[in-house]
Amino acid sequence: MREAWRASALAAAYVEEHLTQKLSLDAVAGAAHYSKFHLHRLFAAGTGMTLHEYIRRRQLTEAARRLTQGTEPVARIALEAGYESQQAFTDGFCAMYKLAPARYRAAGRFYPLMLPLDFGEDAPEGPFGEADIAYASASDAPRVGALARLCVDGYPYWARDEFDEAVRRGIAAREALILGAGERIAGAMLFSRESGRIAYLAVHPRYRRLDAAALLVGALADTLPRGREISITTFRSGDRADHGYRAAYARIGFAGAQPLVEYGYPTQKLVLLSRKGEVQRYESGR
C-alpha cells in the first residue's frame, strides 16, 4: 500500500498546482512518473476513489469557493474548472451541490466537496484492532478536525465551525471515539448514547479498505444496550455525489430507512440491522 499512498500523494499535489486547467489522466500520470493505467489503479487503492472523481470534486470545490467569494462570470469559472461550456459546468455543479451555480452564489454559503488530500508520513500504518479504539480527549480535537478535513467527501454539507463545536460537545459527553495513535488518527466517530445515532463517522483515505469503519461501529454497538437502534445518515441511492459510502455502510450491515433533508440536501437515514457480536469486524490479516 505504501506505493499506492506515494503515487496518490504525487498525483494530488499535481492536481492542486493545476486546478484552473483542464486536467487529464495522461498529464497527471506523466508528472507522477507512472503509466496512466498503473496510476489509476494505485490512486483508487490508496484513496477509495478514482483520480477522475478526485479531480472533479476538487475543481468543483474551488469553483464553489470562487462563486461565493467574488463576482467573476460563471462562464470563466466554468472554463477554469475544466468544463468546455457553461451548461456542462451547471449540470456537473447541480449533480454534486444540488443547486445551480447562480443559486449557490446567491446563498453565499461555501462548503467543500473535497479538500486537498494529505497522506503524511506520520500517519499510522495499521492494521488496527479493538485495542486501538479510545474515547477522544480534549487534546485529540485538533487531530479529529484534521481527519475531518480529509473526509468531507463523505458528507453533503460540512462547515468547520459547526463541526469543531460538535467535536467539543462529543468529547465532553464521552460520545467521541478515535481509532489509531500518534499525531494522526485513522478514524473518528461522534455519536449519541441516548439515541444511538452516529452524527459523524470518518476514516482516513489510507484505511478505507481495512474496514476501519466497521471496527468503530462495532465498538459503538458494544457500548449500547441491546435493542438500541444504531443509525447514520448518508447520500440517497443514486446520488452522483456518493462514490461508495452507501455501499460501505451496507457492508457493515446498515439498511435504508426514511429519506431526510439536511441543510437543504436530500439524504437518507440508514439503520444497522446487525447488533452486538454480529457486527462485521475488521481483524488483522484478513
Quick synopsis:
By secondary structure, the protein is α+β, with helices and mostly antiparallel strands. 43% of the residues lie in helices and 14% in strands.
Topology:
Blueprint: H1 2-17, H2 25-32, H3 36-47, H4 51-69, H5 74-80, H6 86-97, H7 101-107, E1 133-135, H8 141-150, H9 160-172, E2 176-179, E3 187-191, E4 198-203, H10 212-223, E5 231-235, H11 245-252, E6 254-262, E7 265-272
Antiparallel strand pairs: 1-2, 2-3, 3-4, 5-7, 6-7
Helix pairs in contact: 1-2, 1-3, 1-4, 4-5, 4-7, 5-6, 8-9
Trace the largest sheet across and list its strands. Answer: 1-2-3-4
Tell me the structural class. alpha+beta
Strand fraction: 5-15%
Form type:
globular
Largest sheet: number of strands, sense, barrel closure: 4 strands, antiparallel
- What string, H for helix and E for strand, traces the elements in order? HHHHHHHEHHEEEHEHEE
Give the rounded overall mean pLDDT. 88
State the low-pLDDT regions, or none.
276-286
β-strand number: 7
Task: Provide a count of the helices.
Answer: 11
How far is it from the N-terminal to the C-terminal residue, by CA?
15 Å
Rg over C-alpha atoms, rounded to the nearest angstrom: 19 Å
- How helix-rich are the residues, as a percent range? 40-55%
- Oligomerization: single chain
Description of the molecule:
By secondary structure, the chain is an alpha+beta fold. Helices cover about 45% and strands about 15% of the residues. It has helices spanning about 1-15, 25-30, 35-45, 50-70, 75-80, 85-95, 100-105, 140-150, 160-170, 210-225, 245-250; strands at about 135, 175-180, 185-190, 200-205, 230-235, 255-260, 265-270. The longest helix has 19 residues, at about 50-70. It is globular and about 55 Å long.
